[in-house]
Design goal:
By secondary structure, the chain is of the alpha+beta class. The chain contains seven helices and eleven strands. The protein is globular. The N and C termini lie far apart (84 Å).
Length: 261
């Protein structure tokens, strides 16, 4: 065997070894996920692993009735947030329908659980993309596949940035104004209303707010948009009132956001 042939054989052996290791890692992660998710979800995650969108999944950073969010590792060893939407309860299913049906981007959506969840994932992906393009600080979406949304990880070294609820603000007045500015930018430039804004879905990174959880967000032409905008502002005022910040009247802020002063 020539030197060249031996070199080729070594390369091929190394490639086979790497493939085997990669397959073993995927199988380990698949077994862990298998305890929680249905087969369709598992196959979606496995496909993303095989495509190299994510190299591996680490621990859960947030778990709720509607979704689980994992820390993932991307192709360049960067942390990613991997949000996996769960099969919805009847209550949540009823709750999500009005947000979808009034959105012209999603017409004639079937009302079975899988169709609704897949649409919800698509909706959050598009909402995050639209908000980010408008200049609002949100996690940058990477890809959505069925009920799995991969997006930018907001945090450091696999540790998520704290939410407003979990951090003691040094400058609450500045943050209050910054969040209101984001609400206005979201409305005027992205043409959207968050719809569920509170201290639970605003993170603080580098002393600036980052808004997340945008599956329920609606376009400004949606029948519920005005009502949801007022609710968002009331929630913010309620939280910052407790911090001793002098907040502005909800109706006044609504007019300021919409430009109908």
């Amino acid at each position: 065997m020539s030197i060249g042939d031996r070199a080729i054989e070594r390369v091929e052996r190394k490639e086979r070894h790497n493939d085997e290791e990669r397959q073993e890692r995927h199988e380990e992660q698949y077994q862990t996920l298998e305890e929680v998710f249905d087969k369709s979800t598992l196959m979606t995650v496995y496909a993303l692993l095989n495509k190299g969108v994510i190299k591996k999944l680490l621990g859960v950073i947030k778990s709720g009735k509607e979704s689980r969010i994992y820390v993932g590792v991307g192709p360049n060893n960067e942390n990613l947030a991997v949000k996996i939407y769960l099969t919805v309860s009847a209550e949540f299913k009823r709750g999500m329908i009005p947000y979808i049906e009034g959105d012209p981007r999603f017409r004639e959506v079937k009302h079975d659980s899988k169709s609704l969840v897949y649409t919800w994932a698509q909706k959050e992906f598009k909402n995050l993309l639209k908000a980010g393009e408008a200049g609002v600080r949100v996690p940058k979406p990477v890809v959505v596949e069925k009920n799995v949304l991969v997006m930018e990880f907001i945090g450091t070294d696999g540790v998520a940035a704290p939410t407003l609820r979990d951090i003691r603000l040094r400058n609450p007045k500045t943050i209050y104004r910054a969040v209101l500015a984001d609400v206005k930018m979201l409305y005027k430039k992205a043409g959207m209303v968050h719809g569920d804004l509170s201290e639970y879905n605003i993170m603080i990174q580098n002393s600036k707010p980052v808004i997340f959880d945008m599956g329920q967000s609606v376009l400004v032409g949606h029948p519920l948009a005005y009502e949801l905008l007022q609710r968002d502002i009331k929630n913010l005022n309620s939280y910052f009132d407790k911090l001793g910040i002098e907040t502005k009247d909800t109706n006044q802020l609504t007019r300021w956001v919409t430009g109908h002063e």
